[in-house]
Specification:
This protein is 49% helix and 17% strand. The longest helix is centred in the C-terminal third of the chain and has 17 residues, at 169-185. Helix 4 (95-104) runs parallel beside helix 8 and helix 7 (152-163) packs across helix 8. The protein has one domain: P-loop containing nucleotide triphosphate hydrolases (Rossmann fold, 3-Layer(aba) Sandwich). With 225 residues, it is an alpha/beta fold.
């Protein structure tokens, strides 16, 4: 571990497991940078939808990525996603973009493009990376890895409460189950815990309780009290 520069921590898991809240809170407690890698895929998905590029059009996606500038900017203490200089943070959380992001994330050209983006961010260390294959593929040598899970109904209810009246609970659960299926069974970088990841089930725990559990693991791993 390179403790002088800070630890590189990954938190993977399915949608609705609480990764975003937990990752943000953990990063804040540690004084680390929080990186939402799912937002990067959503940013590519939004750009593809706007350009009329289908999620399975590899040539079109390659052209799109070749001219795409994507990254984060800190504004008012919050991390904002910029795509070609435009703040799209508030435009990437719709059901359409969620499903498109799941589809484009299975395309090698998109994963290769964002792999470089993510590893560049990770080279600075002292960061908490949230995603689906951070510990298994992107950062196999991360200092501490977590896999955050929860049962489907709990995850669907959490997402439904986030979306409000934008979709029915039944539809949210259906979409989430389909995304789970896509993410788990895709040939390239499927959703799965890294062999050395610490698995935490958040079904019965609050975000605060999960963060405390993670801090215990981190202290144990680093030998700090």
């Amino acid at each position: 571990m390179n403790r002088e520069k800070g630890l590189l921590i990954t938190i993977d898991g399915p949608a609705g497991a609480g990764k975003t809240t937990v990752s943000r809170n953990l990063a804040a407690r540690l004084g680390y940078t929080y990186v939402d890698t799912g937002a990067l895929y959503r940013g590519v998905a939004l750009a593809a939808v706007r350009s009329g590029i289908e999620p399975d059009d590899d040539e079109g996606l390659a052209r799109l990525c070749d001219g795409l500038s994507i990254g984060f900017s800190q504004q008012g203490g919050q991390s904002r996603l910029l795509v070609n200089g435009e703040d799209v943070t508030d435009l990437i959380r719709t059901p359409e973009i969620s499903m498109t992001a799941s589809a484009v994330s299975a395309r090698p050209v998109v994963r290769t493009f964002l792999l470089d983006v993510q590893r560049d961010l990770g080279s600075r260390r002292a960061a908490v990376f949230e995603g689906r294959d951070m510990g298994s593929v992107v950062f196999p040598d991360a200092d501490v890895k977590f896999f955050l899970a929860a049962d489907l109904k709990t995850r669907a209810l959490r997402r439904y409460q986030e979306l409000g009246a934008a979709a029915s609970l039944e539809q949210v659960e259906k979409d989430m189950a389909r995304r789970d299926e896509n993410d788990t069974n895709r040939a390239l970088a499927p959703l799965a815990p890294a062999p050395d990841a610490v698995r935490i089930d958040s079904t019965e725990f609050s975000a605060e309780a999960v963060v405390e559990k993670m801090l215990e693991v981190i202290r144990s791993t680093t030998g700090e009290n």
